[in-house]
Amino acid sequence: MSRDRWTTALASLALAALAGLPFVAIRPVSAAPEPVCLALGDSISAGVGTTLPRKRAFPRLVCDLLAQATGRSTRLVDLAVPGETTRSFLQGDQLARLRDEVTRIRSQQAEIRAVMLSLGGNDLLELTDAPPEERQAGLDRFRQDYPAALAALREAVGRETPVVVTTVYDLSEGDPSAERTDAWWVAQFNAVIREAASQHGTGIVDLEAAFRGHIAEWTWYPGDVHPTNEGHEQIARLVWQALAIDTEAPSVQIERPQAGTLPRRFVTVRVRATDNVGVERVELLAGDRPPIELRYLPEQQVWIALWDSASATGQATLTVRASDFAGHVGESRITVTPFGGTP
């Protein structure tokens, strides 16, 4: 019996069985509420510095990655306040708004999938050019306030909710071991953030390390201290990795060339690379040459590059490596012989 006829027969049997039963109204099953991402803290979490905060702020980008990973739209609730310090977070209304929002989310039986906190930058900026004794007093306050802020956050969202905090990047890109320099003070504040994150079981994104050497391209400094669009993208990538939600590596298939002798010296490398969230980069490695980055063609959903096989000696192993936004890597390899034999 064909599959279609088999399906029709089963449907007929089901209808016949139901014909003798009393009618029972079936209530529609309501859709599960959207999962929620929460963004808290200062102007970086609020998206300041981007050309379109509601789409390009790092919390929005993380929320979009989460939706892609789960196949469900995810709602972003951004409570961040530009200019917020750790003390104003504790004493102002952001914390109260957080508690109200969590109560509302739980009453809707929605799930909080991620909480992102950027805090500490304004504490440092308030002390710019201050004498050492004032900076030390500010650091002492921060040692009390920041752990208290994380404790209050944990109390509001619960111990099991994923929380990620960020350190503060160093605009001076100086030597953090040189005492009493701007870089040294940034390092002292970040040490408090790291210790509190460990104490309260939160993930941590080390912007101090990630942004070192990239301040000019990832922030508007010296005109402004906030991240550019690219800076927000970098923060989103690091937060996504810290959340550890995406555990799958990309799948890679080399469509061209095929293994064996190449038909010509210059060959097109054509690759299909797929991922449950998204492929960020695809590279070709051949021998000891620098990697060649492949270009994505969205209309064909393939990655391509042109490779000069004259760079190979004898048989060559071509390795294509695809990376996703979580840092996972998938690879595929083929062995080829250059056109005309050994160059």
Automatic annotation (TrEMBL):
Pfam families assigned: Big_7 (PF17957), Lipase_GDSL_2 (PF13472)
Classification via InterPro entries: Ester_Hydrolysis_Enzymes, Ig-like_fold, SGNH_hydro, SGNH_hydro_sf
Domain of life: Bacteria
Entry's Gene Ontology molecular function annotations: hydrolase activity, acting on ester bonds
PANTHER family given in the database record: THIOESTERASE 1/PROTEASE 1/LYSOPHOSPHOLIPASE L1
Transmembrane spans: none
Gene3D superfamilies per record: Immunoglobulins, SGNH hydrolase
Protein name: GDSL-type esterase/lipase family protein
All copies of domain SGNH hydrolase-type esterase, residue ranges: 39-233
Source species: Thermalbibacter longus
